[in-house]
């Protein structure tokens, strides 16, 4: 537990602004940690559907046949990637809003939210290598080729630094706009929902609002994730553009938009759970880490 006594903060040389910034990063990290542990198996089934264009039962059977020992194979990269990603998402968004409000006090709130969200999402893209390794470890054709996370990281070194950032374009396309939508909708939905003094009631309200937003955003950007997955399962060789890979997948799936959304129902189910947990856990952790200006 962090000591939030103002005297301790003064002794450590932490201003209220710095306390707030630290809290945003820390609460984002903690919320993501809780989420990954709970939702990783669901994400793995969805990944197989994205990659192979198969139904839920087929993907589930693949993982079932592989055995329990492989269920959490590849969890370290998403644990690292997601915890740092959500930490950056909330932390950099808050920091960006502070800077924009300080330097452009008359900026419209919605423009501030959109700009801060776009910036935070773009910074998150620095974690592409972790998402890349996660993709390789979840694909069953690499089970024998890569023993674990660190083995995969070392193995890609021979192909150069660029190999770690394969799939960066769809990640940028996804992260910035999705963050803009998340923080924009989060504010709107929060204002529409009744706030209670009961902790359980607040938790459920935060869960529901996060779940709604997550389901909407993850569905809209699902095809982008399909393209990202296809790009990132390739090891070495050329780096085809986002559009090249998109059209290749579209043609492979009989030019059917519907087949581009294979696995989307599991995706929005996971997103409902995932973003509900993240939003509710984030708000709960914030209440557990009060700072001096909370009452202002």
UniProtKB/TrEMBL annotation:
Q: Name one GO cellular component term.
A: mitochondrial inner membrane
Keyword set for this entry?
Membrane, Mitochondrion, Mitochondrion inner membrane, Repeat, Transmembrane, Transmembrane helix, Transport
Transmembrane residue ranges: 22-42, 203-225
| Topology term for the membrane | Multi-pass membrane protein
Q: Which GO terms describe its molecular function?
A: NAD transmembrane transporter activity
Q: Assign the protein's first listed, main location to one coarse class.
A: mitochondrion
What name is this protein filed under?
Answer: Solute carrier family 25 member 51
The organism named in the record is: Strigamia maritima
């Amino acid at each position: 537990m962090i000591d939030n006594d103002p005297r301790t903060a003064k002794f450590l040389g932490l201003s209220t602004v710095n306390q707030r910034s630290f809290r945003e990063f820390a609460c984002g990290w903690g919320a993501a940690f809780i989420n990954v542990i709970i939702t990783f198996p669901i994400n793995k089934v969805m990944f197989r559907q994205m990659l192979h264009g198969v139904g839920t039962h087929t993907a589930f059977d693949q993982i079932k046949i592989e055995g329990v020992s492989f269920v959490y194979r590849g969890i370290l990269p998403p644990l690292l990637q997601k915890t740092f990603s959500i930490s950056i998402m909330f932390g950099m968004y808050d920091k960006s809003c502070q800077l924009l409000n300080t330097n452009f006090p008359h900026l419209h709130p919605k423009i501030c939210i959109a700009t801060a969200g776009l910036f935070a999402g773009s910074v998150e893209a620095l974690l592409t290598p972790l998402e890349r390794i996660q993709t390789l470890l979840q694909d069953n054709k690499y089970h024998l080729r890569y023993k674990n996370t660190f083995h995969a990281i070392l193995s890609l070194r021979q192909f150069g630094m660029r190999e770690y950032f394969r799939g960066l374009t769809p990640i940028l396309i996804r992260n910035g706009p999705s963050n803009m939508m998340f923080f924009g909708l989060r504010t709107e939905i929060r204002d529409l929902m009744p706030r209670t003094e009961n902790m359980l009631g607040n938790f459920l309200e935060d869960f529901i609002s996060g779940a709604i937003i997550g389901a909407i955003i993850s569905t809209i950007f699902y095809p982008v994730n399909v393209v990202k997955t296809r790009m990132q399962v390739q090891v070495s060789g050329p780096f085809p553009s986002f559009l090249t890979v998109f059209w290749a997948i579209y043609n492979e799936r009989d030019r059917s938009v519907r087949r581009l959304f294979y696995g989307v129902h599991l995706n929005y189910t996971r997103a409902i759970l995932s973003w509900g947990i993240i939003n509710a856990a984030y708000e709960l952790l914030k209440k557990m880490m009060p700072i001096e200006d909370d009452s202002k």
